[in-house]
């Protein structure tokens, strides 16, 4: 099968993580029509969004030249429903994997129409899938996984120290992390200003992110509000690297439960108490982390890619 994969190819991107697994079962051509990003300021983001107007035409032109048997799109910002219809020409199935919440994103106003126009919408949340099924041809649920090349499975025991949080800044995340001031915490991500008493640095991705998590006793997972009970990409990256996952509660998209593979917190004070307990008893923390790793170890993006290929083969316009 000739498969055209349309996605951003930046470091740590989902398209980049899925591509090796997709290439195992298909003849893949990766197409990235997106303008490069330089910086993360407001003006830079606005300029990048304006350049998205050229993405649809570039995607259609690529499909006309490559003539693939199917098109797999990750998110697809800049594509309209008309672009999806044009990509579906000649009976070619188009599958759109949306790794965000399409009901929340003002920055991606065509997200829902793109998913509705596709032959199959792939989403990470059962709750969101229920809503999408009201207007979509077909909806499949595939929870997030992890890239074992970046987040190499690591023994939860051993020489570990401190706490790691990896993620973009937000007011809610800052409020929770401030409760950890004075503890051995490393925060890495985009948009962070100084957090008093906490080691803050720029974002790390791929193997650097994996090594950082593999060195920690605890990996903190603070979900964005749009997740609304469903888990994110970090969920399995933390468990793969053997850190104890301390996370917001949620059962959609994860087998982890409070005390079974992870610990839940509900407010900043409880997060601090959980961190202090884990650092005081690292062997106990490693025991919970071991269960979490066992529950999620098979959820690699190579395995997810195999599931996506089966969806593509079973999907007809």
General description of the model:
With 317 residues, the protein is of the alpha/beta class. The chain is built from 12 helices and 13 strands. It has helices at 14-25, 42-51, 55-66, 81-87, 111-117, 126-132, 171-178, 206-214, 234-240, 268-280, 282-296, 301-313; strands at 2-6, 27-31, 70-74, 94-98, 120-123, 139-141, 163-166, 185-188, 199-201, 218-221, 244-247, 257-258, 261-264. A 7-stranded parallel sheet has the order 9-8-7-10-11-13-12, with helices on both faces. It has a 6-stranded parallel sheet with strand order 2-1-3-4-5-6, with helices on both faces. Strand 10, helix 9 and strand 11 form a beta-alpha-beta unit. The longest helix is centred in the last third of the chain and has 15 residues, at 282-296. The protein is globular, with a radius of gyration of 20 Å. The chain starts with a strand and ends with a helix. The mean pLDDT is 93.
Structural class: alpha/beta
For the terminal residues, how far apart are their CA atoms? 16 Å
Helix content percent band: 25-40%
Taken from the alpha-carbon principal axes, the silhouette is globular
The number of E-state strands comes to 13
Biggest sheet: strands side by side, in what order? 9-8-7-10-11-13-12
Described by strand count, sense and barrel closure, the largest sheet is:
7 strands, parallel
Q: Unreliable runs, pLDDT <50, ≥5 residues?
A: none
Give the overall average pLDDT.
Answer: 93
**Percent of residues in β-strands:** 15-25%
């Amino acid at each position: 099968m000739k498969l055209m994969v349309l996605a951003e190819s930046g470091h740590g991107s989902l398209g980049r993580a899925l591509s090796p697994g997709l290439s195992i079962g298909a003849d893949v051509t990766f197409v990235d029509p997106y303008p490069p990003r330089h910086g993360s300021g407001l003006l830079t983001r606005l300029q990048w969004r304006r350049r998205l107007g050229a993405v649809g035409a570039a995607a259609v032109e690529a499909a006309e030249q490559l003539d693939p048997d199917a098109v797999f799109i990750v998110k697809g910002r800049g594509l309209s429903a008309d672009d999806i219809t044009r990509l579906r020409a000649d009976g070619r199935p188009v599958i759109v994997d949306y790794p965000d919440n399409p009901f929340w994103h003002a920055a991606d106003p065509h997200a829902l129409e793109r998913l509705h126009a596709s032959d199959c919408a792939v989403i990470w949340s059962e709750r969101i899938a229920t809503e999408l099924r009201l207007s979509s041809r077909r909806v499949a649920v595939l929870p997030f996984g992890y890239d074992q090349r970046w987040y190499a499975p690591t023994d939860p025991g051993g020489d570990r120290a401190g706490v790691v949080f990896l993620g973009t800044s937000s007011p809610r995340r800052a409020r929770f992390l401030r409760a950890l001031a004075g503890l051995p915490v490393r925060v890495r991500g985009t948009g962070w200003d100084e957090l008093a008493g906490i080691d803050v640095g720029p974002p790390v991705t791929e193997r650097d992110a994996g090594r950082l998590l593999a060195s920690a006793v605890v990996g903190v997972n603070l979900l964005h509000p749009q997740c609304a009970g469903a888990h994110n990409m970090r969920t399995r990256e933390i468990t793969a690297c053997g850190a104890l996952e301390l996370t917001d509660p949620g059962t959609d998209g994860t087998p982890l439960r409070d005390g079974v593979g992870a610990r839940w917190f509900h407010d900043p004070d409880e997060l601090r108490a959980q961190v202090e307990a884990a650092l005081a008893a690292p062997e106990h923390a490693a025991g919970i982390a071991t269960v979490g790793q066992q529950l999620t170890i098979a959820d690699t993006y190579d395995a997810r890619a195999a599931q996506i290929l089966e969806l593509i083969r079973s999907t007809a316009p």
